[in-house]
Amino acid sequence: MQHLDLQVVEQAREWLNASETVWLCTVLSTFGSSPREPGSIMVAKADGRHLGSLSGGCVEEDFLERLQAGEFSQRVCTERYGLRSEDNRPHIQLPCGGILDVLIERLEPDEGNGHHLADLAAVMRGREQKLRCISLVDGSCSLVAVDSSGGARVEVGTDRVSVRMGPSLRLIIAGLSSVAIPCAEFAVSLGYEVIVCEPREEEYRDFSLAGVRLEKILPSMFIAKPGNCHQQTAVVAVTHDPRIDDLAMIEAVRTDAFYIGVMGSRLTSDKRAARLLSTGGLNPDQLARIQMPIGLSLGSKTPAEIALAVMADVLRVQRGIKRDQL
């Protein structure tokens, strides 16, 4: 789940609390290439104001135009984009040539919908995943527990849709550096909730980056706090300062973070590995969780190029792709 999805849910709550009806749209499935993956969401009002996205823009434009024309008055429906519709309306051609199925829910500003979205936001801020189940018959919805973190993001049945919801993607950057800034910028654009942990006042004094949260604390202390590192969290250390980087790694391997990496040359990484085993108290299995040297081997030289290699590697692990599959 992207951090943008949480913002969408929060916006939907804000509009509901202002007695506005909202339409919550969810990508159910894609065929061929498509800009957004199943589970992506968007919220809109009757006046066309919206947050989030479903495609590269063409689907949103069609939906919002029809919404403002008075369509989608039913409680729940599905819409397919990329093919000619049954009523022979001019079909929307996705720029990538794909097909997109979208669930459209009309949510009235009542107590039940308000509670549901509040519960959904809590799930997305928490640590555990839940299934959001929506009836295709009457639009009723609920959140139910799941036994594991695995499984398809979206499952579509004959009369029900289930969407796996959980914590938003989070990137914890251990310490500020010339590489940390572009890392944070890339991560924000990829939909991550980005948290920079930096205890050194001389480093954070002039730091300001839109969409990035600054914690003036040792990264290791932040990482160790319950709830700060969950299964959707990546931890990267890019300061070249072992006092910050090593301690961050020692705590990160004790969490559920899906990606843990630290910057350094091969020689520096070998020395760090020996240090973490001898004095850091890590065992070989914990050490194996750390990507070091961090990032894909792209021949990166500049801070921005290194940051690109780092975030590309985070994406690789997030998607479950092995290095030898690239």
UniProtKB/TrEMBL annotation:
Tell me the superkingdom of the source. Bacteria
Occurrences of domain XdhC- CoxI (ranges): 15-69
InterPro entries annotated for this entry? MoCofactor_Util/Proc, XdhC_CoxI, XdhC_Rossmann_dom
Enumerate the Gene3D superfamilies for this protein: NAD(P)-binding Rossmann-like Domain
- Which residues does the UniProt record annotate as the domain XdhC Rossmann? 171-314
Which protein is depicted? Xanthine dehydrogenase accessory factor
Q: Which organism is it from?
A: Marinobacterium stanieri
